[in-house]
Amino acid sequence: MLDAAEQLFFERGFAAVSLSDIAQAAGVTKPIAYRHFKTKDGAYLACARRAQADFAQALVQRADPTQAVREQFAAAADLFYELLETHPERWELIYGSAAVLPAESRDELSALRLGNIETTYALITKDHPDIPKLFAEGLSHAMSGAAERLGHWWRSRPDLDRQHMVDIHVEIFYAAVAPYLDSRSTAKR
After folding, report:
1. In this model, does residue 148 exceed pLDDT 60?
2. pLDDT-derived band of residue 25, with 50, 70 and 90 as boundaries?
3. What are the start-end ranges of the H helices in 63-87?
4. Exposure string over 99-118, b if 16+ CB within 10 A, otherwise e
5. Is 13 helix (H, G, I), strand (E, B) or coil?
6. What's the CA gap between 144 and 7, in Å, rounded?
7. Domain locations in the chain?
8. Backbone angles phi, psi at 138, to 5 degrees
9. Is the pTM of this model over 0.70?
10. Which of 42, 64, 67, 148 is the 20 to 30 Å CA partner of 19?
C-alpha cells in the first residue's frame, strides 16, 4: 500500500488523493486502507517516514571513515542526488511543499527532516571528533537546507547531470569544513 500511496501522492499531489484511491491502486478494500493508515495524512506521513528511514540507513551504510573528507562529502551528495534522480516521488515526500498538510502533520514532517540533520551531525562528529560541536550542528543544518534547495534547483534544470550537482555540493561544503579538518586550525578554535 505504501508504494501505491507514494506514487499517487507524487502524481496527483496530496489534495487530489483519497484513502479510497490508495486502496484501489493497492488492490485492497477501503476498510483495509483505513485500518492501516487511519487518515490520508497518516498515509502521507507513513510514506515520508519510510523514505526518510531508507535514506538515513543508506547514508550511514555509504559513510566510509577511511575516505578523505572530500570523498565522504561526494558519496553523501551522490546518494542524495541519486535519490532525487531515481525516486523523485520519495524526495518530494520529504522535501516537497508540506503547506497542504495540517499543522500536526507538518510538525511530524519537520521532525523527519530533523532526523536527516541528526544523521548528518552524527556522521560528521563520529568521523571528526575534533570539529567543534556547535560548528558541526550548524553545518549539519546548513548542509540539509542547501541540499534541499539545490535539489529544487536541479529539478528545474534538467540540463544538469547528477555529477555536476555532486561537484557543486562538494565544493560548497568542503570549503566550509576544510579549515576545521586541519588539527592545527581546530586547536586554535
Report:
1. yes
2. very high
3. 69-86
4. eebeeebeebbeebbebbbe
5. coil
6. 24
7. 50-188
8. -65, -40
9. yes
10. 148
